[in-house]
Here is the input.
Amino acid sequence: MISSTPMVNMGWYAQAHEPPAHEPIAAVKTALIVEDDQSIARLIRDYLDRAGYGVSLAADAESGLARTRTDKPDVIVLDLGLPGRDGIEMLRELRRFSNVPVVIVTARGDETDRVVGLELGADDYVVKPFSPRELVARVRAVLRRTERVETDIEVIRVGDLTLDIPRMRAEMKGEPIDLTPTEFQLVLTMASQPGRVFTRNQLLDAVHGVAFESYERAIDAHIKNIRRKLEPSQADPHYVVTVYGVGYRFCDD
Ligand code: CA
Here is the structure.
């Protein structure tokens, strides 16, 4: 559910939108911005700074990797279009030594990079031109998800949906829903991290223990069945939302 953004250049945003007022957070989290375009980097820095994050900057992949090792940021905002080694290469290298959450910034229309980035372990993405407010929201959401992953959860509740993991039982508004093991596993994977975008490949990986599917489009067929069972309106899905050109995400409200 990525709505089409009107073509607006970043300069316009910088002038028309004052950065949001400082919002206090429990502990100061730090963000590393890897972006070669200095005006965009500074704009993102200002917004994250005012949102209460400690921010450092790197203009290429090498210094981005070096800064990750020295500064140990809580989150990285990574532009994929970098001179020299690009963002995809940096991400690949980064994942060899760090699980730090990463929000990638991709060029408009570049769905391949987006999918590859997510599969290399990026946590979310924004598409240029983006609103800095949207980026701050993504950074917050990604940090929130990382914080709650560690607990030993047996029951997950998202909206009206309840998943009883040991019993593999699903309920919507208290009414049992009959999901196959594969469908349950897919819903569980997405609902465990509401708001996170999953590519078809990632969803395929998630069900490999349950079923043998040979290609990504099989996921679409499963999603269709899940929606039929879960969604009040299939024409306007509320829970399992399509992310055009990328995959799916479970609603996070
Ligand atoms: Ca760039």
Observations:
- Residues 132-148 form the longest helix (17 residues).
